[in-house]
Amino acid sequence: MDSTIKKICDGDVRSASRLIRDIEDKLPDARAKIKKLYAHTGKSFIIGITGAPGAGKSTLTDALITEFRKKNKTVGVLAVDPTSPFTGGAILGDRIRMLRHAEDTGVFVRSLATRGALGGLSQAAGNAIHVMEAMGKDIIIVETVGIGQQEIDIINHAHSVVVVLVPGMGDEIQTMKAGLMEIADIFVINKANRAGAKQLQTELTSMLNLSPKTADGWKPPVVMVGNAFEPAEFAKDTAGLAKKIGEHHLYLQKSGKLNERMHRKAMTEIRDALGACLMEPVLHSLMESGELEKFSEKIRNRKTDPYSVAEEITEKFFQKRGKA
Amino acid sequence: MPERKIRVMVAKPGLDGHDRGARILARCFRDAGFEVVYTGCHQTPEQIASAAVQEDVDLVGLSCLSGAHRVLFPRVVELLREKGASDITVIGGGIIPEQDLPALYDSGIKAIFTPGASLDSIVDWIKTNIKPQ
Q1: What residue of B is the nearest CA neighbor of A13?
Q2: Nearest CA of chain B to the CA of A315: how many Å?
Q3: What is the pLDDT of residues B47-74, one digit of tens each?
Q4: Which residue of A lies nearest to B51 if distances are taken between CA atoms?
Q5: Which residues have C-beta within 8 Å of that of residue A53, sequence separation ≥ 6?
Q6: Closest CA to A93 of A141, A59, A65
Q7: Which one of A14, A91, A95 has the shortest CB-CB distance to B26?
Q8: Domain boundaries, chain B
Q9: Are A46 and A140 in contact (CB under 8 A)?
Q10: Closest partner CB to B37 (pick from A27, A87, A111)
Q11: Per CB distance under 8 Å, which residues of A are interface residues toward B?
Q12: What count of other Cβ atoms lies within 10 Å of the Cβ of residue A227?
């Protein structure tokens, strides 16, 4: 076995974090490593935590790590924060809430910047999950960037999705909307000691009562989590959340839904890999040759249109090769 | 060839809650195009070294205003070495008397920035000295 791959499978944090970085930086070698790693992946249970900025995702993640560690499960965490569209820089501030686990060798926390991805994750997230799987983590928690209504890429990567809401973000109509409100396997109403929590719970429950039920029905539970500054109460609430997540995992296995999710995940991976194999080399080559800049200028001057450009590029890179 | 993004960590070791400076630096590094892991106050050198390895950063910037830099800064360097991560550069800043500088440099701290150092000078130092492989 490749020595890096062996180290990662043996749980070496340094090699794992470096490979994640190679994936982020799109090093050519990274793809080859993932190919070798892939056979060692697919055994972890993956939990997605998503919700608005400041809703408490990192603090809940920290509490969940504590719960899973009590059961002796090893935990990997991928925490995503936004990249600046202007400078390319990023503040990765999620792990500040998880510091108490910094020295626990059973916990590996890695921050990722979105680097332009718009779905709430980073392009590297899927493969970063694989690296943690190969390390043998029992549970992987993926914390998305703070999101709005539609950034729901997490459903393509996680087995169970926890949507974190806080009171005071709008009326009942918000709970009816498509996107975020549909993807939750478990809802958390965080900061539930605040005004409006009870009302949000009522609204969510009535929304969920209207949802069509499946025969083997899983109805997303609504978990109330109180003030993080009341440690005892908070720990009780988050233990309840961990329990619900466990129940959902069991449900996925028993109902066969896990397979459906794995299929969705595989489809996403094929799409992403195709993008990397087809689109990226083409764009890279056009950028190197300066053609991309020329196409842009022609479009700006209305001498051509984006579709004609795309057809010309397709002709040049693919059809020619196909005919030959 | 794809370009490496510089990853840095800003951390405050020890019992020192004055993090305005560290936060300004974190923000300034973000604006310089770095990915900045900000880990906040009250950390042990063990937590810092462990987080630096997990995050695969190129550089750890330590801030200390409490006077404990002579113990805490070298300890971070030592722990990184123990973890096989001596390639991670450690720099420091804060209220650090001039007579303490030689010992800190000897311990493996690569640069020290004291009050009056401009943000640009710190960013320039990083851009000049940190070339991720």
Answers
A1: B54
A2: 26
A3: 999 999 999 999 999 999 999 999 999 9
A4: A102
A5: A146
A6: A59
A7: A91
A8: 7-129
A9: yes
A10: A111
A11: 13-14, 17-18, 20-21, 24-28, 83-84, 87-93, 95-96, 99, 102-103, 108-111, 113
A12: 14
**Digit-coded pLDDT (tens) for A122-161:** 999 999 999 999 999 999 999 999 998 889 999 999 999 9
Say yes or no for a CB contact (<8 Å) between A102 and B36: no
Considering the domain B7-129 in this protein, what is its CATH number?
3.40.50.280
Question: Cβ of A84 and B31 within 8 Å?
Answer: yes
> What pLDDT is recorded for position A324?
43
Q: What is the DSSP letter of A87?
A: T
For CA atoms A12, A14, A18, A20, give the dihedral sign. positive
**Residue A236 shares a structural domain with residue A294:** no
Task: Compute the nearest-CA separation of A124 from chain B (Å).
Answer: 14
Nearest residue of A to residue B5, measured between CA atoms: A25
Residue A13 lies in a domain: no
Asked if residue A194 and residue A314 are part of one domain, the reply reads no
Distance CA B16, CA A29 (A): 43
Does B3 contact chain A (CB < 8 Å)? yes
Please tell me whether residues A51 and A111 are part of one structural domain: yes
- What is the tally of structural domains in chain A? 2
Find, in chain A, the residue whose alpha carbon is nearest to that of B41. Answer: A96
A223 forms bridges with which residues in the sheet? A188
The answer to whether residues A145 and A99 belong to one domain is: yes
How many CB pairs below 8 Å do chains A and B form together?
90
More confident residue, A173 or B75: B75
pLDDT digits (tens, 9 = 90+) for A40-92: 999 999 999 999 999 999 999 999 999 999 999 999 999 999 999 999 999 99
Q: Both tokens of residue A215?
A: 């025969």
Q: Are residues A293 and A238 in the same domain?
A: no
Euclidean distance between CA atoms A31 and A44, whole angstroms: 21
Is A314 inside a domain boundary? Answer: yes
Tokens matching residue A243: 């329990």
- Nearest C-alpha of chain A: how many angstroms from B102? 30
Residue B36: strand pairing partners:
A91, B8
Q: Which positions ≥6 away from A116 have C-beta within 8 Å?
A: A83, A85, A123
Cα–Cα nearest to A97, from A67, A64, A65, A58 = A58
User: What is the domain range of residue A111?
Assistant: 42-255
